[in-house]
Design goal:
CATH architecture of the largest domain: 3-Layer(aba) Sandwich
Distance between the termini: 89 Å
Number of strands: 8
Helix content: 40-55%
Structural class: alpha/beta
Oligomer: single chain
Largest sheet: 5 strands, parallel
C-alpha cells in the first residue's frame, strides 16, 4: 500500500511527540531516569488516547542500546526493530483473540528464557480485560514474581473487569480524554506537515466529535480530506458529520433572547426541511447554554477553545444566569419527552414556545402590571351569579353554614368588588414584597396574589380583620394562600383579639406543644396571607401559651386543625355505620360466617370537601 493513514503514519515515536497525558509521561519519565523499573504496568483509558503507543515507547526506552532513559535514540537496532514491529523480545498479544487458559500457559512457557538481543523481554497484552478467569489465575504468579529480565505492560479500556488480584500487582496509569484544543493543535501540526489546507473551525468540530480520542479525530480528518477533495472545510465537515449549522443555533438563540416567536418558528421550519431528527439540535443548544453558564461564573473559561467563543462571551452578558438555567432545564425535559410528542416537529415547536414563554421572576419584578392582573381576573361564572333554588341544592343544602349561605347570596354583587379587591391585593403584595421581603419571598407573595385574582373561591367579599374570632378563623382558614410548615402552624393557632393599634393587628395563641417548628418568620408570612385575603395591611403576632385557659379561652376551643380532624372522624364514623347497616354486607357475613375488619374501613374520600365548615 502506497498510502498510510494519518493515525499510523503519525504515531508518536517518543514521549516528546505525544499530545497530552502529561501526568503519565511525568511519572514514567521520572521512574526511567531514576532506574526504578517496575515489572508490571497497567495502562487504562478510552479508545484512541495512546495506551498502545505509550507501551511501545516504554519498550524502546527500556531496550535502547544507549541506556535506559525517557528519550530513546531511535537509531539503534533495538529502537528500529521495535518501531518496525519485528523485535523478537517485544511480544504483543491480543487478549481478545487469546482468551483461553491454554494460550496464557503457552505464552508463559518461554518467560524464563533470557531475551535474544534486547535488555528486557517485554510482554504487551492489549485488551487484557478479555482474558478468562482461568487465564488471570494462570498469570498471577508470574505477574507477581517474574524473572528479572521480564516486564509486563497491560492495556485495557475496562479496568473494572480486571480482578483486584491483578490490579494489586501492577502500577496503574489512567489516560484521560484529550481536550479539544489539544486535538486541534496536534491536527494543525500534522496537516501543515502534510501540506493540506484546513479551517480551524472545521478542526474544532472534528475535535468535539472525536470526544477526546486522538485516533478518532485523525480518522475523521482522513474522511474529511476525501470528502473535501484534499482540504478540510467547515461546511463540508458539517455535512459529513450531520452537525447542526452554528448559524441555526445563533439565530434560534437570538430569537429567544429577543422574544421573537415568528423568527424562531421560521428558522425551525427552514431547518426541518433538511433534518427530521431534532435530538442533535437540542444537544447542541444544551452544549451552547452550558458554555454560556460556565462563562458567566468563570469569565474566559466558557469561551476558551470554543468555535463560538466570541458569541458565548456575548451571550454571557446578554442573558441572565437565571434565564440560562431555565433554558437548560427546559431543554433537558424536552429531550426526555420528545418521544411522547405527536411528531418531532411538534415537540420542537413546543420547546421553542416554552423557551419564549417562561422567564424566572427576578428580584425587582414581582408581578406584572397590577392593572393588567386585575383586568385579567376571571369573572364569576353564571352558576355562581345566580343563587340556585333550594330544591336544586339537594339534601346537602340543609347542612350549609350561615356563613356560606351569606357568601353565596352576596356573590351576585361581587364582580366589581372582585376586580377592585384583586387590584388592591396586587398593589399591597407588590408593595410589601419590595419593601419587606426577599426576592424568593416576593415570588411567593406574587403567586398568592395571582391565586386570589384568578380563583372565585378566594375572591370572596372583603373580610374585616377586626371581626376575626375563633369561629370565623376556622371558616376562613382553608381560603388563605398558605402551604407547608406555615399552614400547619396556623392550623393550630387561635385568634385572641384583633383591631389593635392604628393598623389592624391580630394576635394568635399557639400552644407550647404545637410550637416546636414555629419561627418568627412564620408570623410574617401569615400576616402577608391575611393582608392579601382581607385587602388591607394586617400585622400578626403569635403568643406561645401553655394551654388555652392560660390565655382566657375555654378548654374546648377548636382550632382549624382540630376542626378538620373532627370532620375526618365524623366521616369515618359514618362510613363504619354505613358498613354495619349495609344489607349486602350483612348477607355476605351470614353466608360465610365472617366478620368485618373495622380498622380497614375508610371513607370514599378521607379529605373533607373544601376543608371548611359546611362542606
Amino acid at each position: 500500500m502506497s498510502h498510510q493513514v494519518l493515525a499510523r503514519k503519525w504515531r508518536p515515536q517518543s514521549f516528546a511527540e505525544l499530545a497530552g497525558q502529561q501526568h503519565v509521561l511525568q511519572a514514567l519519565g521520572n521512574s526511567l531516569e531514576q532506574q526504578r523499573i517496575h515489572h508490571a504496568y497497567l495502562l487504562t483509558g478510552t479508545r484512541g488516547v495512546g495506551k498502545t503507543t505509550i507501551a511501545r515507547i516504554l519498550a524502546r526506552c527500556l531496550n535502547c542500546e544507549t541506556g535506559i532513559s525517557e528519550s530513546p535514540c531511535g537509531e539503534c537496532t533495538s529502537c528500529r526493530e521495535i518501531s518496525e514491529g519485528r523485535c523478537l523480545d517485544l511480544i504483543e498479544v491480543d487478549a481478545a483473540s487469546r482468551t483461553k487458559v491454554e494460550d496464557t500457559r503457552e505464552l508463559l512457557e518461554n518467560v524464563q528464557f533470557a531475551p535474544s538481543s534486547a535488555r528486557y523481554k517485554i510482554y504487551l497484552i492489549d485488551e487484557v480485560h478479555m482474558l478468562s478467569n482461568s487465564s488471570f489465575n494462570a498469570l498471577l504468579k508470574t505477574l507477581e514474581e517474574p524473572p528479572p529480565h521480564a516486564v509486563f505492560i497491560l492495556a485495557t479500556t475496562h479496568p473494572q473487569k480486571i480482578p483486584p488480584t491483578v490490579l494489586s500487582r501492577c502500577l496503574q496509569f489512567h489516560l484521560k480524554n484529550l481536550p479539544a484544543q489539544v486535538i486541534v493543535d496536534h491536527a494543525n501540526y500534522i496537516l501543515e506537515a502534510e501540506g493540506i489546507s484546513a479551517e480551524t473551525a472545521a478542526l474544532q468540530v472534528i475535535a468535539h466529535a472525536a470526544a477526546g480520542s486522538m485516533r478518532d479525530a485523525l480518522s475523521l480528518i482522513e474522511q474529511a480530506i476525501s470528502f473535501g477533495s484534499g482540504s478540510v472545510l467547515l461546511e463540508q465537515v458539517n455535512d459529513m458529520l450531520g452537525v447542526v449549522d452554528h448559524q441555526v443555533l445563533l439565530d434560534l438563540t437570538n430569537a429567544i433572547i429577543d422574544g421573537d416567536g415568528r423568527a424562531a418558528l421560521a428558522q425551525l421550519a427552514t431547518y426541518a426541511q433538511r433534518v427530521t431528527d431534532f435530538t442533535r439540535l437540542i444537544d447542541d443548544l444544551l452544549a451552547l447554554y452550558h458554555r454560556v453558564a460556565v462563562e458567566q461564573v468563570v469569565p474566559g473559561a466558557g469561551a476558551e477553545a470554543q468555535l463560538l467563543g466570541e458569541t458565548i462571551a456575548d451571550y454571557a452578558t446578554r442573558i441572565s444566569p437565571e434565564d440560562i438555567q431555565l433554558f437548560y432545564q427546559i431543554l433537558l425535559n424536552a429531550k426526555r419527552d420528545m418521544a411522547l410528542a405527536p411528531d418531532p416537529l411538534t415537540g420542537m415547536e413546543m420547546l421553542l414556545l416554552r423557551l419564549l414563554a417562561f422567564r424566572p421572576v427576578n428580584g425587582n419584578t414581582v408581578l406584572a402590571d397590577p392593572a393588567r392582573v386585575a383586568t385579567e381576573s376571571r369573572p364569576l361564572s353564571p352558576q355562581v351569579e345566580q343563587e340556585p333554588s333550594e330544591s336544586a341544592q339537594g339534601p346537602n343544602a340543609a347542612r350549609q353554614s350561615p356563613v356560606e349561605k351569606t357568601e353565596r347570596v352576596d356573590a351576585t354583587k361581587k364582580p366589581a368588588a372582585v376586580s377592585d379587591r384583586a387590584e388592591a391585593s396586587t398593589r399591597l403584595s407588590v408593595d410589601m414584597a419590595q419593601h419587606n421581603r426577599s426576592p424568593s419571598e416576593s415570588a411567593g407573595v406574587s403567586e398568592q396574589a395571582e391565586d386570589l385574582s384568578g380563583h372565585n373561591e378566594l375572591a370572596a367579599a372583603p373580610f374585616d380583620p377586626a371581626s376575626l374570632n375563633p369561629v370565623s378563623w376556622c371558616e376562613i382558614f382553608s381560603r388563605l394562600p398558605l402551604s407547608g410548615v406555615v399552614r400547619a402552624i396556623a392550623g393550630h393557632c387561635v385568634p385572641l383579639n384583633a383591631g389593635l393599634g392604628a393598623s389592624c393587628h391580630v394576635e394568635f395563641a399557639l400552644q407550647d406543644s404545637d410550637a416546636l417548628l414555629y419561627k418568627e418568620e412564620h408570623s410574617e408570612r401569615l400576616a402577608t396571607s391575611l393582608s392579601i385575603f382581607c385587602g388591607c395591611s394586617v400585622k400578626v403576632s403569635v403568643r406561645i401559651v401553655e394551654d388555652w385557659v392560660a390565655c382566657g379561652l375555654t378548654a374546648d376551643i377548636e382550632t382549624p386543625a382540630m376542626y378538620k380532624q373532627r370532620l375526618l372522624d365524623e366521616r369515618q364514623e359514618q362510613a363504619m355505620v354505613a358498613v354495619q347497616q349495609d344489607e349486602n354486607i350483612q348477607t355476605l357475613l351470614e353466608a360465610f360466617d365472617g366478620e368485618v375488619d373495622m380498622e380497614s374501613v375508610v371513607p370514599v374520600s378521607t379529605e373533607p370537601e373544601g376543608d371548611q365548615p359546611g362542606s
